Amino acid sequence: MTAHGAIDSGLRPPRGRRLLYVVGAVVTATSAATLPGIVTGLVYREWDDVAALAVGGAVIATIGLAAWRVVGRPGPFNTREGLAVVSLAWIAMTVAGTLPYLLSGAISGPTDAVFESAAGFTTTGATVFPDPAVLSHALLMWRATTQWIGGMGVIVLFVAVLPLLGVGSVELARAEAPGPEPERLTPRFQQTAKRLWVIYLGLTGAEVVLLAAGDMSLFEAVANSMTTVSTGGFSTTADSLGAFGAYSQWVVVAFMFLAGTSFALHFRARAHVSRYLGNAEFRLYGSIVIAAAALIGIGIATDGTAAASVRDAVFSAVSLVTGTGYHTANFGAWTGALQVLVVALMFTGAMAGSTTGAIKTYRLGVLTKSSAAGLKRVAYPDAVITPRFGGRPLPEAIVRNTQTLFLFYMMVFVTATVGLALVDAASGSAVDLVTATSAVASALGNIGPGLAGVGPGESYQAIAAGGKWLLAFVMIVGRLEIFPMLLLFTRYLWRR
After folding, report:
1. Burial state string for 98-135 with b = 16 or more CB within 10 A and e = fewer than 16
2. Which pTM value belongs to this model?
3. Which residues in 294-331 are b (16+ Cβ under 10 Å) and which e?
């Protein structure tokens, strides 16, 4: 028996076959994501795209079943293998997600298809389509579905396949969970995931009803609700939510904020609403949103009516902090000071345990408190100083892991920014500093639009092919919180 409770490695199937077993099951489950697009296409009689989605779904299912049932073999996992399988599953989902775009002819080459698929499953919201309205209803629903699935992550797929796989669900959750540690609401992790799904479905359904009661069609309400609750940001128009009225925008603001709140906190607060304000991270999250909205509001106060300025300020602040990427105002045209704020908000993120990306407010709280404690130790070297967050002492392991992740986050940001500039320069279509910096910050934080050449109303179409591959990789790195993807390229993960 190993330290992880697995049987002796000599009796286990080869690692590659065990990993392929799970990845194949995830890919098979992903094929079901084509169904909403197929149904939508049938309603609107978009036969060619219905055929593309159906064939794409069939091919995805066939490949997944072959890997799952024919080639792969089940077996227990350890932590390292949990990290590996989650990363490989996200890569496989991204590749599988290119088929509907390629088969329909909406995208002609693999580079743009991989970029669009990665942006969907990672809920980044970056796109190669200058105007999404050129796509059929079926393909718009496919884009929305990829983000809706990606919002809760591949952990969602494991709810259905874990009983068949016999793998360590907690190890998989630790690799994918958007926060410091996966939080159990029940003794069994599988039951926890199901309860979080109920909340996810409930928020989506409630937003559909409210948006459909406004100026959106039922199709627009469904598509935009799926990409709001997932904090994805794929909208149905080039103007994003700016194409709709004030009522729809305020509804979306409310649901972006709710999607940026820990789903575990939603569950715990279902009977006692006061638990929201009793949570230190929630208070920090709300404070960041309020402060950002106030600063933006002051900066754009002269750009229109007071009501419009307030709405644009609040909408932009919530969209940026939660990483949704919707826009009602062109923040790329704001003053330099506000653009610096925009980039800063791309790094914050909302609460751990939500559907958002970036660093997360919990980690920001840990970094702030531990840094203050470190500074105090300089003044009082003999004192025993323990950093606290929300009145509770922070364990050294959490402080250390948070600082390590922040360091790697910034290293990836700097390296990818330099890499994007070099790749585009080598292709003869060099991007400017603002475009490169904001594009990487947006991809790493899973946001979508950046500034300058990739700002609101623009697309990533002009980015060179090498730059798109790099940004697609950065999106997945950001979605999986750095370590699982980076560990794929180290010997520590694969050493027996």
Report:
1. bbbbbbbebbeeebbbbbbbbbbbbbbbbbbbeebeeb
2. 0.90
3. ebbbebbeeeeeeeebbbbbbbbbbbbbbbbbbbbbbb
Within 105-136, residue ranges assigned H as helices are: 110-121
List, in sequence order, the alpha helices (H) in 76-165.
Answer: 79-96, 99-104, 110-121, 137-152, 155-165
354/183 Cα distance (integer angstroms): 11
Coil, strand or helix at 89: helix
CA–CA gap between residue 178 and residue 446 (Å, rounded)? 12
Phi, then psi, of 241 in degrees rounded to 5: -80, -5
* pLDDT at residue 182, rounded to an integer: 52
- Give how far Cα 322 sits from Cα of 65, 121, 151, 231, 347, Å: 36, 16, 12, 7, 10
Residue 383 burial class via C-beta count within 10 angstroms: exposed 0-12, middle 13-18, buried 19 and up: exposed
Read off φ and ψ for residue 245, nearest 5 degrees: -80, 175
Backbone angles phi, psi at 389, to 5 degrees: -135, 120
Cα–Cα nearest to 471, from 423, 400, 409: 423
pLDDT in tens, 295-350: 999 998 876 688 889 999 999 999 999 999 999 999 888 999 999 999 999 999 99
CA–CA separation, 349 and 320 (whole Å): 8
Query: Taking phi first (over 0 means left), then psi (-120 to 50 degrees means alpha), and beta for anything else, what does residue 240 get?
Result: left
What Cα–Cα distance (Å) separates residue 361 from each residue in 345, 346, 441?
11, 12, 16
- Nearest alpha-carbon partner for 426 in 467, 469, 461, 460: 467
pLDDT, one tens digit per residue, over 348-371 is: 999 988 888 899 998 899 899 999
- List the one residue out of 270, 285, 255, 22 whose CA is nearest residue 151: 255
Q: Which of 87, 89, 154 has its CA nearest to residue 488?
A: 87
Predicted local confidence at residue 156, as pLDDT: 52
d(Cα 272, Cα 83) in Å, to the nearest integer? 36
